[in-house]
Prior knowledge:
With 262 residues, this protein is α/β, with parallel strands linked by helices. The chain has 8 helices and 7 strands; from the N terminus they run βαβαβαβαβαβαααβ. A 7-stranded parallel sheet has the order 3-2-1-4-5-6-7, with helices on both faces. Helix 3 (68-82) runs parallel beside helix 4 (110-134) and helix 6 (193-206) crosses helix 7. The two termini are 33 Å apart. The model has no long low-confidence stretch (mean pLDDT 95).
Amino acid sequence: xxxxxxxxxxxxxxxxxxxxxxxxxxxxxxxxxxxxxxxxxxxxxxxxxxxxxxxxxxxxxxxxxxxxxxxxxxxxxxxxxxxxxxxxxxxxxxxxxxxxxxxxxxxxxxxxxxxxxxxxxxxxxxxxxxxxxxxxxxxxxxxxxxxxxxxxxxxxxxxxxxxxxxxxxxxxxxxxxxxxxxxxxxxxxxxxxxxxxxxxxxxxxxxxxxxxxxxxxxxxxxxxxxxxxxxxxxxxxxxxxxxxxxxxxxxxxxxxxxxxxx
Length: 262
């Protein structure tokens, strides 16, 4: 088990990747702290984990990571319950306006930056002193392929995540001497609720079968498939685990070859 008995915070519990990250952490033996803005999401995920991994220790904490008081409460409750924090997986995100730049107001970008950059860093900043006192830990930033491969309608979302990518590299350098590893996983298309909905809408709009849209997306990938959210969660768990003990400041592409760095 890659995370056996490691106290692991997973933010952004929701349909798709967030839930899968929590499940994979639990499968790998972690004591899981779940963060989401809605209690219902947390309850659903706890039930899901409990049905699959009986006995897994789960702490549910409703929180908005862009609210410093919420973040402080998360850390306090985690330390009260478990006494340590071994890994932080930053999966909470805001998808941006999904609007073209022309005619848009830059004020509309604020929410994406508030969550994706400042919220993520607020939670990270609250956890790092604890990891430093412990003598180590692991932080994984869930980032996006659109930082490397621009896509229409993603400009504010990608810009906020690009800023996070730069901050991550600097943090890896700053906290490396304390034994804290900080890495990024750049996720692309994922076959899960969001992409399933996109495929359905496109098929209805164009009047073609859903398989035609799905096939077109799959052909964008070197592996000729759309990765599932579960398949994308597993490399994130690897980065959180001691199996990546000599990896820090890395930018791992997890997208089935939809983006090929060269």
